[in-house]
Amino acid sequence: MSIEILSCNGLNLLDGKLYNLINKRMIKLVIVIDAKRIYLIGLMGAGKTTIGKWMAKQLGYSFFDTDLEIRKQTGADIPWIFEIEGEQGFRRREHAMLEQLSAQKNAIIATGGGIVLDERNRQLLTSDGICIYLHAPVDLLVERTRFSKNRPLLEGVNRREKFEFLMKERDHLYKKSAHLVIRTKRGSPKRMASKLIKEIQKYEKNRS
Questions:
Q1: Among 37, 60, 126, 144, which residue's Cβ finds the most Cβ atoms within 10 Å?
Q2: Main-chain dihedrals φ then ψ at residue 41, nearest 5 degrees
Q3: Would you list the domain boundaries of the chain?
Q4: CA distance 81 to 174
C-alpha cells in the first residue's frame, strides 16, 4: 500500500487511507486507494454508469463508459450498430474498446452488460485492476429500464423474462470475473459509491 505525504498550509499530513485536508474555509476528504483501474460489471440497469460517475468524483479518477466511448468513436448509437453489424460486430468493437481503456490509469470503467461473454474480456477484467460485480434483483432492473429506448436486447420482448434469462446466462460469468460482488438496491447512488470505495479499501487491506 502506498503512503503519501501531503502539505496543507505548511503542515505535512501523513496517514493511511484517509486524509482530512484543512484550509481556511473547508475540510476536504481525500480518499486514497491503490487500484489504478476499477471495472464495473453487471446487467443493464444495475447502476454501473450512475454509481461509477460518483466513484470517479469521490476518488478524483476519470470515468469511462464502454458503450459511450464506442458511440464517440463510431459516431453511431448502439442500436444502429446492432442493426447493421449484428451483436457479434458490436462485441468485436466492445472488446477493442475494453483493451483501449485498460491502458488508462486512475480510471473507473463502466462496462456493457455483455462484456463477460468474451473470454478475452474476462481475462482483462480479472488480471488488470479491480473488478466489481453490481448485482441487482430482476424487479429493480425492470423498474430502472422501463423507459429505456436505447437497449437493443430489450426491444420487442417481455423485459422481465429477458432479464431472468440474462441473469441465468451471465450471473456465473460476472461472479467468475469479479473480485467483489456488491448487491445494489434502491437508494442514493452517491452513498452506494462511498460503500463501494470502502469495500475496495477493505479488499486491498486484506490482500496486502
A1: 37
A2: -125, 165
A3: 1-32, 35-207
A4: 24
Cell of 99: 483493451
Percent of the chain with pLDDT over 90: 70
How buried is residue 64: exposed, middle or buried, by Cβ count under 10 Å (0-12/13-18/19+)?
Answer: buried
Higher pLDDT, 65 or 157: 65
Distance CA 163, CA 44 (A): 9
Please provide the CATH number assigned to the domain covering 35-207: 3.40.50.300
If phi over 0 gives left and psi between -120 and 50 gives alpha, with beta otherwise, what is residue 129?
left
Q: Provide the whole-model pTM.
A: 0.83
User: What pLDDT does residue 29 have?
Assistant: 54
Alpha-helical (H) ranges within 77-188 are 78-101, 119-127, 138-144, 159-177
* Per-residue model confidence as pLDDT tens digits over 57-75: 999 999 999 999 999 999 9
